Amino acid sequence: MNYYLLVYGVYLPVTVLLTVWVARTLFTNGRTFLVDIFHGNEPLADSVNKLLLTGFYLINVGYATLTLRSTDEVHSYQQTVETLSIKIGTIILILGAMHFFNLYVFYKLRSKARDEARTYDFVVDK
Question: Which residues cross the membrane (predicted)?
Fold first, then answer.
């Protein structure tokens, strides 16, 4: 039996499903932050959100396909599971890191937008 095909057959669907799930979660919940960052400009927030989603897919699916090739020896079910755990675990860590990076960027953008709004309110009040 070719265990490499089993690794590939499990790795690709799991990776794509995880990527889609995280991307959709970020897309749905990130919209609120983007609308706030762009001061209620929903068309701009939606456009940026779609661009972020596209970039997220490109980076993660691109990395997943780059790491598809396995250099480990896979001659048994045990080695198949071990190889899959390394590959899928790596993808999960990368997705988590990208998720926290996106949250950090949203936080910084939102802080900057609030500071600008406070400055604008201060100038208008004078």
Answer: 6-27, 48-66, 86-107
Q: Residue 83 has which token pair? A: 């190889």
The one-character DSSP state at 76 is S
Measured between alpha carbons, how far is 67 from 56 in angstroms, rounded to an integer?
A: 17
The residue type of 47 is S
Q: How far apart are CA 89 and CA 11, in angstroms?
A: 11
Query: Which residues lie below 8 Å from residue 35, measured CB to CB, with a gap of 6+?
Result: 41, 42, 45
- pLDDT over 90 (residue 36): no
52-61: pLDDT as tens digits: 899 989 988 8
The position carrying tokens 């079910």 is: 77
